[in-house]
Design brief:
Blueprint (H helix, E strand, L loop, with lengths): L1 H8 L1 H17 L11 H16 L3 H11 L8 H7 L13 H10 L28 H6 L1
Helix pairs in contact: 2-4, 3-4
Protein name: Centrosomal protein 20
Family: Belongs to the CEP43 family.
Pfam family, one: FOP_dimer
Length: about 140
């Protein structure tokens, strides 16, 4: 009955997430140096952190920060938008930048309204180690 009650209140999921975060922190070897973050990975991690915190996934955000070596203090949103060449309108500032990016690509960059204005970006400009497995490998799985 207690488990069902905690589940209905959403507390059980939060407790499990907190336990996972604490276990990760206990197992994380702080003496082993993290590989340096590339500029692209720093920006990507920050977009993800902003999204996680906006949606109140605070334990996921804390694990991301600890595991990635991302600075504890989040990057300034205006700095992030400037680095990504994003021009925000007043409506776009109320949600994470990642929402505007996704909206832009879902609408084929053709929306004419209050969405973020985003640049066309080619993934060919990024080093392969930042992109994960090649598309053909991912599609086969």
């Amino acid at each position: 009955v207690l488990r069902d009650t905690l589940e209905k209140r959403g507390a059980l999921g939060q407790i499990k997430a907190r336990i996972r975060a604490e276990v990760f922190n206990a197992l994380d070897d702080q003496s082993e140096p993290r590989p340096p973050l590339s500029h692209e990975n720093l920006l990507i991690n920050e977009l993800i952190r902003e999204y996680l915190e906006y949606n109140k996934y605070k334990y996921a955000a804390s694990v991301l920060t600890a595991e990635s070596g991302q600075p504890e203090v989040p990057l300034d949103r205006q700095f992030l938008a400037k680095e990504l060449n994003i021009v925000e309108d007043t409506n776009g500032k109320s949600v994470p930048l990642l929402y505007g990016i996704i909206s832009h690509f879902l609408h084929g960059g053709k929306e004419e309204s209050t969405q973020n204005t985003l640049p066309k970006v080619s993934l060919l400009n990024y080093p392969k180690q930042n992109l994960g497995k090649p598309t053909t490998e991912r599609n086969q799985k």
